[in-house]
Design brief:
Elements (H helix, E strand, L loop, with lengths): L9 H19 L4 H12 L11 H11 L5 H20 L5 H14 L3 H4 L2
Length: about 120
Amino acid sequence: MYRAKSKIREADKKAVRLLCSSFNESLRSGKEYKVALTKMIESQKQFIPELKGLDSNSILASYNAQIVVSLPQELRNRAIKLITHLVQKHINPKLSASDCFFMEAFIDEQLLQLKEWLK
C-alpha cells in the first residue's frame, strides 16, 4: 500500500507548541476560554510570521457562536480544531487531510488534559 509523504514540517510542530503553550498558560492563570483563544493568537503573532496579518476576532467569530453552552470536552475539541485550522489554512496550506489528522493528535498531546480544565 502506498502512503504519501507527510508534509508536516518541524516549523508546523513548533507553531503548534507555541500556540498550545500560550493557550495552556492562559487557562492555568484563570483566563476565560474565549480570552485564552484570543491571547493565544495575538501573543504568538510575533513568533509565527504567518499569523501577523490575522484578525483574531474574525477568526474566532464562528467559534464564539458555537460555545454559548458547551461542556469542557467540547471546548477542548474546538480548541484542537481551531489550532488545526490555523496551521492548515495560515501556516502550511499544503497539509493533506491525513496530515491534519496527525496534527490533531499532536495538538491533543500538547494541550492541557481535560482534568486540568476542570480544576
